[in-house]
Amino acid sequence: MSDMQNPYPQPRLRPVHLGLMFAAVYWTFEAIRDVLVFNKGSILERLFLPDLLSLVMRLLAVCILVAFGAYADFLYGKIRSAKDVPAGMMPQMNLVWPSLGFVLLYWVIESLRDSFAFGKGNFWIRLAAPDSTSLWMRLLSVFVIILLGLYVQNLIRERLNQSVDIQQIKRRLEETVERRTADLSILNRKMQEEIASHKRDNERYQKTIRALNVLCNINEISVKAADGQKLLEQACQILAEGGYAMAWAGEPRPEAKGRVKVIARAARNPGDLDFLSVEPDDYEVEKWPVGRALFSEQNIHIPNFLQTTQTTNWTNLAMKRKFQSVFCMPLKKRQSLFCVLSLFTESGDFLSEDELDYLKKTARRLSDTLSRMDGG
């Protein structure tokens, strides 16, 4: 595992390597003791060609040092591999007692060697009260084992401290990410709301401009108008070209109450004009928006055919044509009802309040012009 994958890098000297190194130091001091204390040849001979008995006893001590190093390396590796374990659940390992155990094992082996190999007295005496030279050599090895144990214990302590630090950093990062995510979520929601609000404002503005342009154009033709029929035809054409789906004017039919005769019409899509041939059934006349405008002589606005509570066969056919809404405006001539100007919008095109106000002004302008031409 690379250091990028594991935040706890391997130490340069692993415990098992230190065990081998201290074993080599022990071997060297044993050779020096044989030469200086027991006069057994030269240093090179005792290093590389010791007698069989010394070789066996040295190997026993070396095996103890290497075994302790391997054991310490195993414990540290176990701690190091637990990188995803929370610090509070990290296994607690103490090398004090294992170190003492290996020290005792080494001390017993040294006593056995002195007693049975070198004939230096009773085993129990060599175990409890060795001579000064043997004691010095044993203490050196004991010091090596304890030093190795302390080194590994320090590595474990550092690893645990790193775990605590990393867990704290990780927790702070998670809290920061959660806080930033929540902030971004709120900011994103506000931005979406602002975008939607700007979009609605822009649509409302565009629709208001649409109705204002219609009013201006109708004001222009009203000044020059001399014929009511031609005026209504031009008005319907202006409304259709101004962005509305269809506009048409119908005058009341005296022989059919609540019904009208089409006297002017225009549509953005000429095929939609066929819809004007659809008349409501007798029972629907009073619910028909044009009929309601005739009876009440008031503006009738159905903002959404899908949401109207007065659904009729006529409104169903209107929805099949993909009409969204209708706005019926009674036009008067000298205070008497002359006709109803109906304005249709397509699906998704709702009339705004400001737009309705300008359309009402347009209807009043047309009524005034019709009255003027009639001599009123």
How would you describe what is shown here?
- It is a single chain.
- The chain is of the alpha+beta class and 376 residues long.
- The protein has helices spanning 15-36, 43-48, 52-81, 96-117, 123-128, 132-224, 228-241, 289-296, 313-320, 353-373, and strands at residues 246-253, 256-267, 300-302, 323-333, 336-346.
- The chain has 2 domains: 15-183, no CATH class; 225-373, GAF domain (Beta-Lactamase).
- It has a 5-stranded antiparallel sheet, sandwiched between helices.
Task: Give the structure's gist in a few sentences.
By secondary structure, the protein is of the alpha+beta class.
Computed over alpha carbons, the radius of gyration is: 52 Å
Helix/strand structural class: alpha+beta
- The number of E-state strands comes to 5
The side-by-side strand order for the widest beta sheet comes to 2-1-5-4-3
* Whole-number count of domains: 2
Sheet having the most strands: 5 strands, antiparallel
Discrete helix count = 10
The residue ranges in which pLDDT falls below 50 over 5 or more consecutive positions are 1-8
Arithmetic mean pLDDT: 82
What is the N-to-C order of secondary-structure elements (H for helix, E for strand)? HHHHHHHEEHEHEEH
Secondary-structure topology with pairs:
Layout: H1 15-36, H2 43-48, H3 52-81, H4 96-117, H5 123-128, H6 132-224, H7 228-241, E1 246-253, E2 256-267, H8 289-296, E3 300-302, H9 313-320, E4 323-333, E5 336-346, H10 353-373
Antiparallel strand pairs: 1-2, 1-5, 3-4, 4-5
Helix pairs in contact: 1-3, 1-6, 3-4, 3-6, 4-6, 6-7, 6-10
